[in-house]
Amino acid sequence: MADGKKTEDQYVLLRSNRRKNLRKQLLVLKIRGEDKRGVFFGYAKTLSKGGMFIASVNPKKVGEEFDISFSITDLKMDLKCRCVVAWSREYDSMTKQEPGMGIKFIDLDAETVAKLDEWIKKG
């Protein structure tokens, strides 16, 4: 790799290639969450019809459930739903991965899921 080019055996299958649902990259989507401990805010970086990644230096624990609300201005939609933390990543100064959590939507209705899916597929 002295010439700056990677050989085929140096490539790694990225996690995004193993995802169940197509994601849409977002600039920043402000999220408002609420659980028994109170209200918190975060920023979503990716969104799918089934959930999203929320960047947070204090991510919740896997399995925790809470209510979230957010707006998608392109669709003129204000969404509120219950979600569960599917995975969580703490801050680690040794990696370049952003801390946060992947959440799964629990109770979005089928019509909303279809609208999200259509919007995401449009890119």
Structure description:
The structure is a single chain. The model is unreliable at 5-18 (pLDDT under 50). The protein has a 6-stranded antiparallel β-barrel with strand order 1-2-3-6-5-4. The protein is built from 1 helix and 6 strands. With 123 residues, it is mainly beta. It has one domain (23-122): Thrombin, subunit H (Beta Barrel), CATH 2.40.10. Strand 4 and strand 5 form a beta hairpin.
Q: Rounded to an integer, what's the Rg over CA atoms? A: 16 Å
Largest sheet: 6 strands, antiparallel, barrel
The CATH homologous superfamily name equals predicted glycosyltransferase like domains
Q: Architecture, CATH level 2?
A: Beta Barrel
Low-confidence region ranges: 5-18
Number of strands: 6
Quaternary state of this entry equals single chain
Question: What is the count of helical runs?
Answer: 1
CATH topology type:
Thrombin, subunit H
* Mean pLDDT figure: 80
Count of individual domains = 1
Helical fraction equals: 10-25%
